Amino acid sequence: MRKLWLLLLATVTAFVLAACSDKGDGSSKDEVSEYRTVYSGEIKTLNYLKTAEANEFAMSANLIDGLIEYDQYGIVQPSLAEEWSANEDNTVWTFKLREGVKWVTHEGEEYADVVAQDFVEGLNYVLDAKNESSTAWIATVVKNGDAFYNGEITDFAEVGVKALDDYTLEYTMENPTPYFLSMLNYVCFFPVNGEFLAEKGDTFGTTKETTLYNGAFILDKFESQNERVLVKNESYWDKDNVYIDRIRYKYNKEALTVAPELFLRGEIDSAEIPTSVVDEWFNDEEKKSQLRQIRNNFYTYFYALNFNPQFDEEYEPQNWKVAVNNKNFRKSLYHALDRVSAMLTTEPFEPESLLNNTITPKNFVDVDGVDYTQLAPLADISNTDSFNSDLALEFKEKAMAELDGKATFPVKMVIPYNSGSPDWANRTQVVEQQLENLLGADYIDLIVEAGPSTGFLSEIRHPGKYALLEANWGPDYADPASYTDPFTEGGTYNKPELAEGYTDANGKSKYQNLVDAAKAEMDPAKRYELFAQAEAFLIEEAFVIPYAVGGTGYIASKLNPFEAQYSPFGVTLEKFKGQRLLEEPMSNEEFKEALAAWEQERTEALANAGE
Q1: How far apart are CA 144 and CA 124, in angstroms?
Q2: How many CB atoms lie within 10 A of CB 212?
Q3: Residues 544-589 pLDDT 10s
Q4: Which domains does the chain have, with CATH numbers?
Q5: Contact, 563 vs 224, CB < 8 A?
């Protein structure tokens, strides 16, 4: 009881300090450090074992810890696992857990120790098909994971995860998996307290009260379309490396539009700056000093062509289906998209530097020193701009001839965007005008639709309510499969397995067979070559139009991006742990200097780590 009273007293004291210093600029050690921002996209669930939405990943990253984490240079570090080892062929991985780590309630009250069985319970939940986890497909890397998910076996004890004792955890893989560590910062491998999960049942993760926390922060306030507040977890095992005491998200349906002005008024600590006002900021000395580029990441952006259209009948989904199943029609779109024009809506100064010709971005993985994107036959695609107006018009003529009497022209193409993003809205308008001007209003009619700012994935993308859609994907682990899997049967994107004329003798799509062959190959050099063939096929057949890498645009922020944990994988980039609030925002000149220093330091860190 005394411990609880002291905890409550500490909480009250923290909020009194916060009231005395609402600036949250970290300028005094006696002040509570508060990071403030605005948002328009709501979080629908706190159930990290179920979700696959970026907003919810960002929340989970700060509330729940996994087995490992990364430092600011991308080097794997211990988190809830203090040490680990793998057998010779990387089929069995053993983790020794940190003792004394606590699960706490939303009030900061200690609930239980974090033990090895919690990781077993988490994976059991994810692989139980009735729970409809959106990340289960990643977890099937463990032995019998896929078989359990599909009901071929019903005893979870046969799945490759075991608690050998309270603090020793063992995973057995379906196949050799040398990249398994890179998968562990993904939510499907996060722990859950089994007793709490059973008690809450279907309500688990629906409110702050039905969630347990073992991460750097606790959810103190969770009010839809109002505010969500995270406070530092005083029971956190590594609290000395958490420098921000409170994170305050304030709802505003026009968040991206109003954020720049709120930042200038000192009401928030970070704001993405829409392209429409970037010039104005750069031409104002005071604003310019607060503006910098957003740090690039390993998200890749592309335009998906939907083979299972579910949009309204007035837009003729069946006619679109006929057209999109014609390769020449797809190729006309592939070569007609002027990606530089589209990118100017986000990066008006160096748009070419952010273009990406493949799904897998450069510098993701390599084999024998050769970047994956430079492996044949992917290299030709990677090194060639897909935009070619002459080819686009040639393919248009072929398509119109082949579709004569089969499809009605102009083909209606529904192209939605997230209404919470001004740049996305502008870019969609640019793409509409550019494609129609090049290919002609006699050929295509792009119909731009504003989608919801909250639930865009679940309401638009996942149900297939589009013909053409700007989409993105981030890697989950250090293997090319992380980028090819979303397009396989049952994957996230555009159902290319439904394309007509691509079914092999075994009943699977040609693309699926190419990916399966790559996955079955364990020699890294041969494996990567096979994946390169699969990805090249996906692009050459114009099932998808690669576009850009993530992290584009400009931001005004009191966060130093080079203090953040760094990794392409999982939810790492969303963590606030290790970051401090700057007294003044970083300018673009300071950003470039810091980036150059970081790149040099990272090279040295990787060499020292033996990677």
Answers
A1: 12
A2: 25
A3: 999 998 877 899 999 999 999 998 888 888 999 999 999 999 999 9
A4: 44-218 (3.90.76.10), 228-293+552-609 (3.40.190.10), 302-549 (3.10.105.10)
A5: no
